[in-house]
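Exercise 7.
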Amino acid sequence: MRESEDRAQNDAVSVHSTASSSFPGMSFFRNRVLSFGSASHDIAPAASFPGTGPSSSGYTALSTADVPDPSTILGAPRRSGSPAHLHHRHRDHHSATYGALASSTSLSSCATQVQESEKESESPDPLLFSKRRRDRFRAKSRYYLKYYLPVLTWLPHYPVRAALAGDIIAGLTVASFNIPLSLSYARTLCHVPERYGLLGFAFPQLVYAFMGTVPVMITGPEPAISVMIGQAIAPFIYEGNPSPEEVERRAIMYIGLITSFFAFMYLVMGFLRLGFLDSLLSTGFLRGFISAVGIVLTMDTLISSLGLSAIAAMEGIPTASAGRKLGFILTHLKDAHGLTAAIAFTAFGIIIGMRTIRMFFAKKYKFLVYIPDILMIVIFSIIMSYKLDWAGKGAEIVGMVDRPNITMVSPVNSSTFMYMTNILTSAFIIALLGFFQSAVIAKNIFPDPPTNPHLAPPRNPTISTNRELIALGTANLLGMFMFALPSIGGYGRSKANKFAGARTQLSSMVFAFSTIIVAFGLLPLIYYLPRAVLSAVLGLICVALLEELPGDLVAYFKMHAWGDLAMVTIIIAVTLGLSLQLGITLGIVISLVQILKHATKARIQVLARVPGTASTFRNADLPSHDVSEDALSSLEHLPNVLLVRFPEPLSFANSSELQQRLRRLEKYGTMRMHPSLPAMRRGDQNVIMDMEGMDSCDVSAVKVLLAIVEAYRSKGKYVLFVRVPATKKILLLFKRSGLSKLLSYNGHRPAYFESVTEALEALDECVYEIPGHWDEEEEEREIEEIPEPELEPLEEDSVVTDIESSESDSIVDEKTHLKREMV
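Solution. The predicted structure, written as C-alpha cells, is:
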C-alpha cells in the first residue's frame, strides 16, 4: 500500500516551476528566495484550470527542447532571457467523483432519492443558538440522546406497510435456527447449562436494538468466541477432577466474569473513541483466526457426535490441543456409540442437503429461504426420541433445563475477583477479537450508504464503530448480571436476517422476544432433544468457518501474498500443535509488529534526473509513469548533490532512523543496496530536501533535522530546504528550535526555496560565498503575519441557508453530470 502511494506521488515529481501563489503564507517564501538576475525567466507559473483549484505542488514537465549543460550542477541551459516552454499537467477528478453514481443510478431514481432526503431533512433546533447556556445544553442533550439511541430516530418514522411484514418474518426465521444453536454454544462449547445461551440471545439483543447503528445486526453468542471461551476456562473448571455439578458451577462463575470484562472493555473503548483499532489486523490474520476456530470446533463436534464425551473427559481431552483431539478420535473410533453417531450424521446430512438446495434454487424459489429446516429437524428428533426411547438406548438427551432465574447479581465481587486473574489475558484477547469481528460485520453486512436503496432502512444513522462499542458494552453489561454468554455481532445470522427481508432493528426485537418466550415458557418441550442433533447443528458452523479457506489460500498464492499465507499457516500450525489461544496470540503479536515496523519506517526518497532532460527528476528506487523498472538504472544522479524528498509527515515514530537512511543514500544513491556493500558514491555531498509531503512535524523530528544540518555544516556542506509547508506552526517550530538559524549561511536568509530548480541554481552560482544580511526579527514578524483559516460564527440562518444551497447545488451538479455521461 505504501509503495503504491509513493509511486502515485512520484508521478507528480517533475521539478521545474514554482509553487502556487495562492497558498497561504507563500509571500513569506518569496521574500526568502535569493535574486538571481533573470532567473525568473526560466520559471513558468502553474496554469489554472476551471474546477481544479490551486495546486500545492505546481510541478510541470520540461520541454524536450531544453538540452542539459554538463558544466553546471543542475545541468540546465544557461539563462538566455527567453522563457522555457512549459507544459502543465492537469488531472480532472470530476469523473472519478461521480463515476460510481453514474454507473449505478438513473436520473429518475436519483430524483426519487433526493426527494426522500429532502423530506427527512430537519432544520436545526433554534435553542442551539440561544444565548442562554441552559437552553443550549438542553438542545444538545436531545441531539446526544438521539445519537446514542438511534431508535429515537428510526422508530417515529417507521414505514409500517413497507417494512413490518419483512421485519417480523426475518426475526422469526433467524430465531428458528439460532435458538437451537444457543443450546449448543452453552452446553457443548462453554460447559454451562443451556439457559445461559438463551439469555445471551434474549435481553442483550433488545439493548442492541435500541442502541445499535447497524439495522440488520443480530448479536449474541458466537461459535468462534464460544470455542475460545471454553478453551480458556477448561483448565480451571476441570482442575482436581471435580463432579459434573462443580464443573457447571465453576463454568457459570467464569462466564459471568468474562461477560463483565467484555462489557467494561467495550464501554471504555467506545468512550475513548478507540473504534479505529478495527483496522489493525490483516485479512491473513482474520482468515487464520476463523480457520483455527473452525478446526478446534470440528474436533469438539466430532467427539460429541461420536458419543465419546465421557471417555474424553476422563482422559483430559477437553483441555488438549486440536492435534491431540484428532489423535484421540482416530484411536477411539471403535468405542463410538452407534445410535448417537447415526443421529448426528443423519441430521448433519439433512442440514447440508437443505443448504445445498437453497444455494442453487433460492433465487428461483424464494420460499426456500423461509423454510426453518433446523427447527423442523429439532422438533422431529424430539418426537422420535420420545417415541423410540433413544435415552434408554444410550443416546444423551438435553433433559430437564431449568427455567432462567434472573436475580441480577453482579459476577464481580470480593469472592470472585481473585479468579479474574486466571482468565484476564484470555478474556482480553477474546474480547478484542469479538470487537474486530463485530466491526468487520458492521462494515460489510450493511455498507454505508446501502448498495441497494430499496432495502435501505428509514432514517438510518451513519454506522459508527465507537457507537457500536458502546451498544455492545451496554448489552453485555445487562447480560453479565444474568451470567449470560458474551454477546457480539454474528455474520451468518446477520446476513440471514438481511436476506430474509429485514430493514430495521425491529427484526432483532422480534428475534429477542421469540428467544424470551422459549426461555421462560417452552424449555420443558426440549427435554427429549438428543445432544447429537445439537452437535449436527454445530457441524454446519464448522463447514461455514472452513469452506472459504482453500479458496483464500489459492488466492494468496496467485497474488504472491506470502505474508498473509505465512500468517494463516502459522496460526493453524500452532493451533494444531499447541493451543488455540497461543496461535491467536502469536498472530496478534505478528500483526502488531508489522504495523509498528510500517509506522516507524522513514520513507525518504532519493531523486535522480531523467536522461535527456534538464530538471525532470524521478524517484530512483520506484518506477513511475515515464520511467520503467528497467530504466531506473539509467537515471542520472547529480554530482556532489543528494536530492531527497519526504513524502509524509515527520514524527517521533518515523524520524528516528532518518539520519542513518540519509547517510545510506549518500553512500549508495539508492535504498536497494545492502549496507554491507562498498560505497558507490565518493565524498561528502550537499543535500537538498524537498518537503512538500511533510505537512506536519513534531519536536522529535525537528531535533533529528537539527542533527542532520549540524553534521553537514561541520563538513562544510550545505543543506537546503525546498517547498516547506507555509504554515505558521511549522515555521515557528523551525524558528524557535534554531533550525532556521542553522540554515542561514554566511549571513543570508534561511535556505528556504520555492522549487528545486532555484535551490540547485543557488548551489551552482555559489551564492552563499558572498556575505548576506538577514534580519532575524523581521523574519519572525513575517511568520506571525501568515494568515490562518478562521471559522465563521455559527448562526441559525446561515446554517439553514448553507444546507439548502449545498443540497440544491449537489442535485443540479449530479443531474447535469449524469445527463452528460448518458450523452
